[in-house]
Write a structure and sequence with these properties.
heterodimer; A: mainly alpha; Ferritin; two-stranded antiparallel sheet; 2 strands; B: mainly alpha; two-stranded parallel sheet; 59% helix; globular
């Protein structure tokens, strides 16, 4: 098989394939010479990049999502790094272990997002300056405040990634990575919530989340029971609002997340 | 300055989702999705092999179907399995758990049952029939065995949704799947912590990523607990 047969096959599904590739003709020529001169194994990569350009959805949208996620991961990494370093704040060994584990995941997410952005020829944002004490002055001296903020950041992270999934629908690789991060954030959230003695899942608009009024935006909309146009309390018998809202996490928009993050900038 | 740009892009994306996007996705499916960059040219098999195969249907086999419907049926099958499991745990084993653990098991039963019933309602006439489950390998009188089975199901559910998201073409369905998968991840974390506190996210690799599994692998892992034969042959690839 050669690449021209592949294009011909694609044409059956996408009559415009030649038009798409036409604007990339020079890249395509390059590809032919690469094919002749270099090892066969290098060709798929080059071919992938041609198709990425011809078919990739608005790369800038994907990059915007990745940088948006990167900001949240910076925030989390910074928060846990400072928290773990604050003397006398996290003294329990199990708690330290949990936060060290969470911090290492957030650090790995930062690295992964940066390298993904770079591989898409984007520019990762640099780490912003965060001010966790801006509205929560005892954040690094009062363990309960620290725990509350940790819960808020993790639950916000889950909701933020969820809100961007649709914007990644045409980049399967990035979407899958985002989902793989998203579920890890949910695991963190569940653990931190239980460290505070609340359930691992969110029932109602923060009804079971034990946060102060200032943190309510983190749980706005979590009382939704309409899923895909269906009131899920009615899809079977005996479903309470607590079960119905606990069973579905809700997304946050970029604007909602930005409002939450602004409390710490 | 940021806002107009963002809006423009969203509008472009909206326009695009009607025309450009489905074509690309068809292409990806046709080419074997992730196979594109790695094995398309190196494989010796013909491209035609990647077409949706028309297998001779076995009358006893439940076919999940194709496209988004197939993926939703796949999720529905897994939710049926989880719902049946926790229903039996609550019916038969609750007394072995502490009061707070009993609340957890009740919640898990409720969540998985509502996931199942929601997906059934969403699928309507396209929904696969009720699956016959087989928990004969589970000792419902042994707390550790129950928790170990729950961990298997919850981690598997998370990996399944993570792996299947890329096959959904409808952004609304993708968000719905996202709303469910994070709850499955919360379940998985809590079950893991009940087994051994602090292991909530040990599923993640050194990049901080949870697994994402392909449907064939997930169904193989679930097969010992499901009597009904399931075909994933027509799922998007």
């Amino acid at each position: 098989m050669n690449i021209f047969n592949i294009i011909k096959e694609i044409e059956k599904f996408d009559p415009e394939v030649y038009d798409r590739l036409d604007s990339r003709r020079s890249a395509f020529k390059n590809l032919r010479s690469i094919g002749k001169k270099t090892a066969l194994a290098a060709v798929p990569l080059a071919l992938g990049s041609v198709f990425q350009k011809a078919y990739g959805q608005s790369n800038s949208m994907v990059l915007e999502v990745l940088n948006f996620a990167l900001k949240l991961e910076y925030l989390e990494r910074n928060f846990y790094t400072q928290g773990l370093a604050a003397s006398g704040l996290i003294t329990d060994s199990a708690a330290r272990g949990a936060f060290e584990k969470i911090r290492s995941h957030e650090a790995a997410h930062v690295d992964l997002l940066i390298s993904t952005i770079q591989s898409l020829n984007g520019t990762p944002i640099s780490e912003p300056t965060f001010n966790f004490g801006k509205n929560f002055q005892d954040w690094n001296t009062n363990y309960q405040t620290f725990l509350t903020l940790a819960q808020a950041f993790e639950d916000t992270g889950v909701r933020a990634y969820k809100g961007q999934a649709g914007n990644l629908i045409n980049n399967d690789t990035v979407l899958t990575v985002a989902l793989q991060i998203h579920s890890v954030e949910a695991r963190h959230a569940a653990h931190v919530r239980r460290m505070r003695g609340v359930k691992g899942w969110i029932e109602g608009a923060g009804a079971n989340s034990n946060v102060p009024d200032g943190a309510q935006p983190v749980y706005a909309g979590e009382d939704n029971v309409m899923q895909g146009g269906v009131n899920v309390t009615t899809v079977g018998s005996g479903y309470s609002a607590a079960i119905a809202t606990g069973a579905f996490d809700e997304p946050l928009t970029k604007e909602q997340v930005a409002q939450i993050v602004s409390l710490f900038e | 300055m940021e806002k107009p740009t963002q809006k423009q892009e969203q509008q472009e994306a909206k326009k695009g989702s009607g025309i450009v996007v489905p074509q690309r996705r068809m292409f990806l499916r046709y080419a074997g999705a992730t196979a594109l960059a790695t094995s398309l040219l190196l494989t010796t098999t013909s491209c035609d092999d990647d077409d949706d195969g028309t297998m001779t249907p076995d009358p006893d086999t439940v076919d999940l179907g194709s496209g988004d419907t197939g993926i939703l049926n796949y999720a529905y099958a897994l939710e049926q399995l989880e719902a049946a499991f926790y229903t039996q745990v609550v019916a038969q084993s609750l007394g072995m758990f502490s009061q707070s653990e009993q609340q957890i098991m009740q919640d898990l039963k409720g969540h998985e049952n509502i996931h199942r019933d929601f997906l059934k309602a969403a699928l309507g006439s396209a929904a696969i029939p009720d699956l016959e489950v087989d928990f004969s390998s589970v000792n419902f009188n042994d707390k550790a065995n129950i928790l170990a089975t729950a961990k298997t199901f919850e981690d598997l559910g998370v990996a399944a949704y993570n792996g299947a998201g890329q096959y959904l073409e409808d952004a609304g369905f993708l968000t719905l799947a996202g709303k469910i998968v994070s709850v499955e991840a919360r379940h998985a974390a809590v079950i893991r912590d009940l087994i051994s506190n602090g292991t909530f996210s040990d599923s993640a690799d050194n990049k901080g990523l949870d697994p994402a599994m392909m449907p064939a692998d997930v169904l193989q892992a679930a097969a010992p607990f499901i009597v009904t034969k399931i075909s994933a042959n027509n799922l998007p690839k």
